[in-house]
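Budget justification aside, the reviewers requested a transparent look at the raw inputs and outputs of the sequence design task funded under Objective 1. We therefore reproduce one unedited record. The lines immediately below are the structure tokens for a 191-residue chain.
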């Protein structure tokens, strides 16, 4: 009986430790990437944290697009309000939308300002139906010394067309199935 209790305690401690070693950080404008990140958390556990910029992007879509275009052209790295100590994490899921067919500048800032060397990084993308663009390649290039797994790209809303949050109902269920399959494929489906 003592041995069984000890094994249960070790299993519980191991599960808690594995969960504490996972960070799910995401950038989400219309909450689709947030919903996808939450589905990942439900599947593998871990700490969930939103990436926020020190100066928020304009709410007006066209103004936001113009700002992102300028940032992409000048390789700008907007300051982040979010502070993260990544040292305690072994596995980091990075959720982001496709912006101008690229990795969003705030995610580039996160990658440039945090040492992720030796960590497993799982890229999670949402987009308006055009795919991840160059974002997975950019993320891999900025993650020097990381093990970057195959990324997952999910279709979210189409803000340009006024279609914002769509990760609900059947679409959410389909996304959950894709996330489970992705995590299994990349070998990261454990807590």
């Amino acid at each position: 009986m003592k041995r069984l209790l000890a094994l249960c305690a070790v299993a519980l401690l191991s599960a808690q430790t594995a969960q504490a070693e996972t960070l799910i950080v995401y950038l989400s404008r219309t909450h689709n990437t947030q919903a996808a990140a939450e589905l990942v958390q439900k599947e593998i556990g871990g700490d969930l944290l939103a990436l926020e910029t020190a100066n928020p992007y304009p709410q007006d879509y066209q103004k936001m697009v113009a700002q992102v275009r300028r940032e992409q052209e000048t390789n700008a790295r907007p300051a982040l309000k979010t502070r993260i100590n990544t040292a305690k994490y072994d596995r980091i899921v990075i959720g982001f939308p496709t912006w101008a067919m690229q990795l969003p500048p705030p995610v580039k800032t996160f990658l440039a300002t945090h040492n992720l060397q030796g960590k497993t990084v799982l890229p999670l993308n949402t987009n308006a139906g055009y795919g991840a663009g160059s974002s997975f390649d950019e993320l891999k290039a900025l993650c020097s010394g990381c093990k970057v797994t195959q990324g997952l790209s999910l279709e979210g809303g189409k803000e340009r067309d006024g279609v914002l949050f769509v990760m609900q109902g059947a679409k959410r269920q389909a996304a959950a199935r894709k996330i489970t399959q992705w995590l299994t494929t990349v070998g990261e489906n454990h807590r």
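The two ends are 26 Å apart (CA to CA). The chain has six helices and six strands. Computational costs for records of this kind are itemized in the attached budget.
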